[in-house]
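ugh ok fine here u go
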Amino acid sequence: MSRTLSFFEPVIVIGGGPVSPDDVALVQRFSNKTIAADSGVDAADALGLDVFAVLGDMDSVSQAGARKNIGKSTRISEQDTTDFEKCIYSSDAPLYLCIGVLGGRIDHQLAALNVLAKYPDRKIILIGPQDITLLCPLDFSVELPIGTRLSLFPLGAVFGVHSDGLEWKMNGVDMDSSGKIGTSNRTSAARVHIRYGQGALLLVLPVETLPELLKSL
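structure:
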């Protein structure tokens, strides 16, 4: 699985799920380079978003989209990964801002969350209609307005979760997707600090907090 594209700036990844002009306007504040995951190029074309490359197995892109972007398309035929994951492993960027991957089919959303756990060395943010989701770093601080909704969700077992600046504080809590989770917490201080020992812990925030989040990554 060699990487074929290298970027020195954040990259937008657009998938084939629901995506709005507001999503495009938000991510374009931080990047002007876009990779489309297969049929994501159709959404990009519909929204006037120019793509740098189209990656995937090309089984869902429209004929019109395939013709329009033939010179930008790379077919990756293996079927062990989703088109979204193909975009991640076939590129190298300091940050991925991903739209069109949340809010649609639940299996596609779960697969996108799985990608966060599989590539902990990448900074990948999934951006949906209401929320942004990323793999929380093992030691992470962010400044947010007091009262901001903040959820922590474990993908499997997560050990030794500590927090400062949350209404419901955690002191060495072990979490598990089949046990204790941490949804719908709220910030109680301007600065939140989260740390944990090991595992894959999702951080979920309101979409309007994206600028504050990016300052902390």
